[in-house]
Amino acid sequence: MTDQPTTTEPTPGGDAPAGSGLSPRKRQQISRAVQYVVLAAVAVFLALTIEWGELGKNFARLDVAEKTLPELFTIALKNTIIYSVGGFFFAFLLGLLFALMRMSSVRPYRWIAIAYIEIFRGLPALLIFLLILFLPLALSGFQVPGGTYGEGILGLTIVGSAYMAETLRAGLQAVPKGQMEAARSLGMSYTRAMVSIVIPQAVRIVIPPTTNQFVSLLKDSSLVLFLGVSGDYVELTKFGNDMASTHANATPILVVGVTYLLVTIPLGYLASRLEKRQAKGR
Amino acid sequence: MTPVNHAVEIRDLHKCFGKLEVLKGIDFAVDPGQVVCVIGPSGSGKSTLLRCVNLLEQPTSGRVVVHGVELTDRDVDIDAARRGIGMVFQQFNLFPHMTVLQNVMISQRRVLKRGKAEAEKIARENLDKVGIGEKCDAYPAQLSGGQQQRVAIARALAMSPALMLFDEPTSALDPELVGDVLTVMRKLAEEGMTMLVVTHEMAFARDVADRVVFMDGGVIVEDGSAEQVIGAPQHERTKTFLRRVLDPTHTDI
Questions:
Q1: Residue B16: phi, psi to the nearest 5?
Q2: Are A202 and A194 spatial neighbours (Cβ–Cβ below 8 Å)?
């Protein structure tokens, strides 16, 4: 029946329970057939119950999709990238600072770093954005530099830096101790050895996980929606939401979703490629 | 005794790791130009002793003086002192993100502040000296263990040290690659470099060392010429160790 080589030898542990009388291979075939039948049944059920016409009219109207252009790319995607790249950049710097503080020999620095990391890893990202929204109220007269961009980037920086700190600390600790010893034995100071020898290697180690963190930051940039941005500052999600309201149709949401995937899927693929390459290099 | 003339002088050195006392009072000196091999069973404290000489391990008590500078002085400029002390590690510890040439140049540039051209010239000279001259642009991962260790020696030599420390430099190597590294070390010894070598290579100790020090249990048991310590050991512990190392198939277990 199948073109798989038939073996009479039972697979290890495949001792058929007494009385079943079927070979492990036969039982595997039956199990697979059942799985296909279930899949087909669900597909038929969905095909019959869903009103495809309605669905199409709500989620996939080409004329509405067309209206999202070109702002979808020139404004919304551009802003999403500005928010997430900006947030990532500062999250990386802040994360590195906290990672180094976390490993510092000065105890209060360690405490501060631990407190920061634990607090901001434990808070929902949305809450952080809401806090930023209320910052000018809490500190009267305070303005986040950079206006709307500044606020969005600040939010993502805070969200990202706590995770980044832990990732970078893991990366720094993954650099063998002998590297620091070799550098110090050549007369380098601790700081010089860190900058020239340890940090460059740690950054290489954390590239795959940080790529994933960038993807997650890119998705979190949708929370900029809650900062009440408008006009030229909207990013993808806000843009899709506004367009959907304007046209009383969900197509823009779908379009925006696809736009996210255009960026996130290649990045995820890149991250796993880098990870594999690194696994080989070690 | 005139302590100023010693390249290395160690007085009553103790080192504890937690409750474990690894060095139990070491007194020991190396004269300029001397090649001293430290032998002994694993766990005897010989690597720890070596690592105390450039303060990679902070001694618990005692004095370490190198080239007249007391390293155990709390206010010593340890980075400056280490410039004059080259160290070669068992695991090579080359910088994997840099080419061979960059490995040998980085500390010349960053620590000695040599210019690029000068640093590169010195790097190439030293790489030629250890026989790796044609591998300048390779990365450490592309080299064999023996080649990596020779690059590590070149890297240390590029700092023009007056003393070289070797911490079991051939222990991580395939047997057929040991000779390349030992040959480089022998040449270095013949040029008059002061060397302190922790090793298991008895042939090297016998042929090259001016002095052999046998350590066991955190103390120096025997200290003398190679003929004395390896050829005619006085202490039972030395004899037992040498029997095990020189004739491993007839060990009493």
A1: -115, 140
A2: no
Residue of B77, B83, B87, B107 for testing the chain A interface, max A β-carbons within 10 Å: B107
| Average confidence (pLDDT) over A198-203 | 91
Of the partner residues B96, B111, B155, the one whose CB lies closest to the CB of residue A201? B96
Contact between A96 and A162 (Cβ < 8 Å) = no
A-chain residues near B80 (CB < 8 A): 187
- pLDDT tens for A125-161 read 999 988 888 887 777 777 778 788 888 899 999 999 9
Q: Grade residue B247 by pLDDT with cuts at 50, 70 and 90.
A: confident
The token pair at B192 is 């008059």
Give the residue among A262, A39, A197, A273 at the shortest CA–CA distance from B107: A197
ipTM of the complex: 0.92
A103 contacts A172 by C-beta, under 8 angstroms: yes
Residues whose CB falls within 8 Å of the CB of residue A244, separated by 6 or more in sequence, listed in order: A250, A251, A252, A253
Q: Rounded CA gap, B108 and B221, in Å?
A: 39
- Greatest Cα pair distance, chain A, in angstroms, is 82
Q: Any idea which residue has 């004269």 for tokens?
A: B31
